[in-house]
Amino acid sequence: MGKLEGKVAFITGAARGQGRSHAVRLAQEGADIIAVDLCSQIDTVPYPMATAEDLQQTVKEVEALDRRIVASEADVRSLPALQQAVRDGVAQLGRLDIVLANAGIAPMGAEEDPSVSWQDVIDVNLTGVWNTVRATETVLVEQGQGGAIVLTSSTAGLKGIGGDSGGGQGYTAAKHGVVGLMRSFANTLAPHRIRVNTIHPTGVNTPMVVNEFMQTWLAEDPTIAGAMTNLLPVEMIEAVDISNAIVFLVSDDGRYVTGVTLPVDAGFTAK
Amino acid sequence: MGMLEGKVAFVTGAARGQGRSHAIRLAQEGADIIAVDLCSQIGTVPYPMATPEDLQQTVKEVEALDRRIVATQADVRDTAALTAAVDEGVAQLGRLDVVAANAGIASYAAIEDISDEMWDDMIATNLSGVFKTVRAAVPHLKANDGGGSIVLTSSTAGIMGMAHLSHYVAAKHGVVGLMKVFAIELAPHMIRVNSVHPTTVNTDMVQNQGTYDLFRPDLAPGTATRDDAGDAFLTLNLLPIKWVEPVDISNAVVFLASDMARYVTGVQLPVDAGSVVK
């Protein structure tokens, strides 16, 4: 008996990386999934973003667990697109209980125009999270059975890391902003028994971090690489470690946990 | 298959309340238990503390789950007694993986009414007791190849100030300081250290006249009821509930103790119905 039998979860950025891992882990616990991903490139992002084939792979892996999944290509920068995806998913799966605002980009480092990188990362990593909650909160409130929302922030949502590029500063600002959103929504949604928390991963073994561009960026600036060292003797953690924290937060194990910033960071922020 | 099969957990204050709940929940996940409790009264504590019968009940409930438990009456203020209890437990159960430093007391007074004895009892139990618990356990944890997990019970009073609780708030904030140091010092051994921060929990430490009076200063001393106090507890929380149950704290402890949280360390985890963020 899984911890999330009969529940439905909406996940952004679900084509690969942490988002796919969340979809699979929640499905293992019995949840059905509404998945969205941009499945397209953003110009200022220096590594290859997810593809339609990636999202299809997530669908396959969830279906292999005998759970249902409604997947669509949608941009978190577009509130109407998210609302449409949620409407379709809820129409097919019957309800909504869990929201994971996971989609994010990391356009730090070499850039032609810092202002464009700044704007892109704020649009996706901050406004995209705001849109994700706005597209779902009404459904949760009207359903009247509570709910759990987890916003993916970062260690860069608690500390001033990320370097001195426009994209890096935008990343840190956006991830800090996500904490502000979480605290606001935790207050406004509590009367509806909807809980809202953030998670703060350190470096995770995903295509956003493990790619040629990011590794070069880290290697070229030893101050950044040094600042990226964890407290526990582990270089990187796995996507499933973030998913496991999410399972705790969205299940009845965390039924009275709200308004919390939960680092899953091998002690990065405790150094 | 439990999340803690083959593990051994040391729980202080295990006779009743959150400590008993932790022992049972950890046992449900497969752990054997080393349990200690004072099982006696401390002079400045205004409610009846746990008894040897309470500790015996914890033993029964763990054994009913087909897990082993080594239970001892021991004072967290007494290094020799704690060390003897842990060493004996490890001798019988073979190892130590998890520590839940849970033992704690509560008392209440305005600043000028906190006697030296109240202050000293509180710091000795709720702060020094946590240090002594971990100090006694660390050599056993370091003996493991795979490390271990330590969970210190702080409180929302370890994050926020609260009136009439100077000594309690100081001790619970101090626990956070210990957690941060332990996390840094023990990380090379893969020993993780975190604190949990409960809001009001439905236990005997809270459900007593002294607490009811503290939270309803508007009523005549000795007259506030459980419901009267519940109305006040409700205003502390963001979620519309009066208190959480011991098992809610235990579920957080299980998460932190298990491989689900294998890379979570140095974290303050409120289980507080949004009390801190309110």
Q: What report would you give on this structure?
A:
The complex is a heterodimer of chains A (271) and B (278). Chain A is α/β, with parallel strands linked by helices. Chain A has helices spanning 17-28, 52-63, 79-93, 114-143, 166-189, 212-220, 222-227, 239-250; strands at 8-12, 32-37, 69-73, 98-101, 147-152, 194-201, 261-264. Chain A has a 7-stranded parallel beta sheet with strand order 3-2-1-4-5-6-7, sandwiched between helices. The relative contact order of chain A is 0.15. The mean pLDDT of chain A is 95. Chain B has 8 helices and 7 strands, in the order βαβαβαβαβαβαααβ. The longest helix of chain B is centred in the middle third of the chain and has 27 residues, at 116-142. The mean pLDDT of chain B is 97. Chain B has helices spanning 17-28, 52-63, 79-93, 116-142, 166-186, 209-215, 226-236, 246-257; strands spanning 8-12, 32-37, 69-73, 98-101, 148-153, 191-198, 268-271. With 278 residues, chain B is α/β, with parallel strands linked by helices. In chain B, strands 3-2-1-4-5-6-7 form a 7-stranded parallel beta sheet, with helices on both faces.
Quick gist of this model?
By secondary structure, chain A is an alpha/beta fold. In chain A, 44% of the residues lie in helices and 14% in strands. Chain B is globular.
Question: What key phrases describe this protein's structure?
Answer:
heterodimer, A: 271 residues, alpha/beta, Rossmann fold, seven-stranded parallel sheet, 8 helices, B: 278 residues, globular
